[in-house]
Design goal:
Keywords: Carboxypeptidase, Hydrolase, Protease. By secondary structure, this protein is an alpha/beta fold. The protein contains twelve helices and eight strands. The N and C termini lie far apart (about 55 Å).
């Protein structure tokens, strides 16, 4: 049986006396998220967007928000745990939520910033998959292949998304089936909290089997640029100037491979006309951890996560400045977002930087 926050489908924290009973479950990330929710008290609005059946009872998929809900202010969404094997993505987002909640006690500048900004967190989108130690959700569906978007160019076999069987990886779901509850919950939060504003950024935290940390942006289903490529290039420009010694490769996902069913392609395409919506995906390069401890190769979880406590702490320290940058970039978007002739200049530089390879 989950705690009090898990008993209502939609629930808002309304008083500081709310407490959760101390306990340890089979899913430490869920425990840690609920501790952050309790610590946030009346600063947070909390919903259970759906419930996922498991052998340990139903698992809640939480959405947490704070700051100004007015649609006239910018917003940032932080997402994690979409793939159950990639626990570190959820932990990064939960650590950032803990940091925000802790600073609210004393950080007057943050409180002032939140009067003009909305923050949204879904740190554990796929708790069932995480509990089972699988990339997919308990139904065998890869949530990042689950959106109704088909690639316009050839995709790599299987990894690009397949409809053969949930017994194989990267299963998209059956043709014509509704989106999975977890995917639908993420989309509903984005459409309610991020869409419809002048400006919003989303950051979805994953880990991938690579040597570099990468920041990807749409499209994943085609090689041509998104409509807001000038704005994305401007974001990249201030990112380079602000975090000069960062470890990231900032690029379109299509530069690596194409896929069917990408959630962020779907949500970008559904964003209302007139707004600037910039989705980013952090792909932490897990080979950075595996090469220091090759024994992790013999564990599914070890391939995608640091594995050792001090390395995980190092990963959290490494990426929290990125999450802070995204928040500040959204709050100050009026100072760097290109307009008029500057848009065309950024578009041309983006084309030269990212799309000279495009066929």
């Amino acid at each position: 049986m989950r705690g009090r926050l898990g008993r209502a489908r939609f629930m808002r924290v309304t008083h500081s006396a709310l407490t959760l009973p101390p306990r340890m479950t089979a899913l430490p990330e869920l425990d840690e998220l609920e501790r952050a929710i309790e610590a946030g008290g009346t600063h947070l609005q909390v919903e259970v967007r759906c419930r996922v059946p498991s052998e340990h009872g139903e698992l809640p998929v939480y959405a947490v928000a704070l700051g100004n809900p007015d649609s006239r202010v910018p917003a940032v969404g932080y997402f994690g745990g979409v793939h159950g094997l990639e626990r570190i993505g959820a932990r990064v987002v939960i650590a950032w939520l803990h940091s925000i909640v802790g600073r609210l006690r004393w950080d007057a500048a943050l409180r002032q910033q939140l009067e003009h900004l909305r923050l949204v967190f879904m740190p554990l989108v796929n708790p069932g998959g995480m509990l089972r130690g699988t990339r997919a959700n308990p139904a065998g569906v890869d949530l990042m292949r689950n959106a109704p978007v088909d690639a316009q160019d050839p995709v790599p076999p299987l990894v690009g998304g397949q409809r053969i069987s949930p017994g194989l990886p990267w299963f998209r779901g059956r043709i014509g089936a509704a989106m999975e509850p977890e995917s639908a919950a993420l989309c509903a939060i984005v459409e309610r909290e991020l869409h419809g504003r002048e400006f919003a950024i989303a950051l979805d935290c994953h880990s991938g089997f690579g040597m570099r940390d990468r920041l990807w942006f749409p499209f994943a289903h085609r090689r041509t640029p998104i409509g807001h490529i000038a704005q994305m290039h401007a974001l990249h420009e201030i990112f380079e100037r602000t975090l000069a010694h960062h470890p990231y490769v900032f690029e379109p996902q299509s530069r690596q491979y194409l896929t069917h069913g990408d959630l962020w392609d779907h949500l970008y395409l559904r964003a209302p006309a007139g707004m600037v919506f910039l989705p980013l995906t952090l792909e932490m390069g897990s080979w950075l951890w595996v090469r220091k401890n090759p024994r992790q190769l013999f564990s599914r979880g070890g391939i995608f996560n640091p594995g050792i406590a001090h390395r995980e702490q190092r990963v959290l320290r490494r990426h929290l400045p990125l999450l802070d940058f995204v928040m500040r970039a959204a709050a100050g978007h009026g100072l760097w977002l290109p307009r008029g002739d500057a848009c065309e200049q950024h578009r041309q530089r983006a084309q030269a930087l990212w799309y000279a390879f495009a066929r």
